[in-house]
Amino acid sequence: MSFLHLAAVLPAALLCAAAAVANLTGHRYPREEADRLGVPRTWIPVLGTLLGAGALGLLAGLAVPAVGLAAAAGLVLYFVGALVAHLRVGDLRLGAWALFSVLSAAALAAYLLL
Fold this sequence. Notes:
By secondary structure, the protein is mainly alpha-helical. It contains five helices and no strands.
């Protein structure tokens, strides 16, 4: 495992874990985003669980690379869905989405290159 692999995986895992905590603890930011994007608030805990599972999977992938690869692929698909949600309502405020997407894609690339 190289430094570059860790440099790609750890920030993605940390950011996704933080977002999962925000979703699962009822922080106002996920609620406001859901309202703005027309996503039912009942989906917030599910989305938080998916983010948390992705973060844990990225970390587990440090021991079992196939798990990390699956988690990274799942997170990339998650953020493709997030992009669709933004574009569906014409929301072009994509700064946070871009950060999460780039980190998830970097983690996926890191696992693919192992």
